[in-house]
Amino acid sequence: MKDVQALVFDVFGTVVDWRSGVARALAEFLPARGGAHLDPFAVADAWRRRYQPAMEECRAGRRPFTRLDVLHRENLELVLKDHGVDLASCTEADLDHLNRAWHRLDPWPDVLLGLSRLRRKYFLAPASNGNILLLANMAKRAGIPWDAVLGAEATQAYKPQREAYTRTAEILGLAPHQVCLVAAHNGDLRAARKAGLASAFVARPTEHGPAQGTDLVAEDPWDCVAESFVDLAAKLDC
Fold first, then answer.
1. pTM > 0.90: yes or no
2. Residue 153 burial by Cβ neighbours in a 10 Å radius (0-12, 13-18, 19+)
3. What are the structural domains of the chain?
């Protein structure tokens, strides 16, 4: 980590608790549209399960790069149909507001303090599959102190494509080894390391709920392993 000048962060799951935030929005939306019997957390999980397949269409070249807000909206309509919600009862404004639940996610409790300490020493930016407006709105609402808003729209690539990592370093004018990805997902870190980035793992054992069975521990010898962003700051002498 001695050469690292910038920390870039996976966002969904690592920085913010997407599941609780999306379920909260669904709990407000569903009852008035015949979905009072539905579990908002189960619907949130179903929406999230469509995330990787939708991006894979772009990664595989079967579809041009399409920003995440558009993919989320398409997936939302499919998920609502799957759960018996009558889309004819929903206005465009209703669906747009619900789709922007991803803009209104809350950070984990350790995030703001940890980032404020890390920012004293490092350049901080998201390295997310989210688009710029989504990430900027999220940061403004929650007070997340990014130095820049990057992500898939800037790199025109979805993780774990190599370009998602190397182009992030290029945008910052740094060599890959001068950039460290911070993530709660071992697979994301493996792809970043393969692209030449440094790696830091911070576990989020309830990202997928209380029965989560993946990414509970660091599975590889990452450059840094921490229990929280505050712990990460301490380990990086911030």
1. yes
2. buried
3. 6-17+105-235 (3.40.50.1000), 18-103 (1.10.150.240)
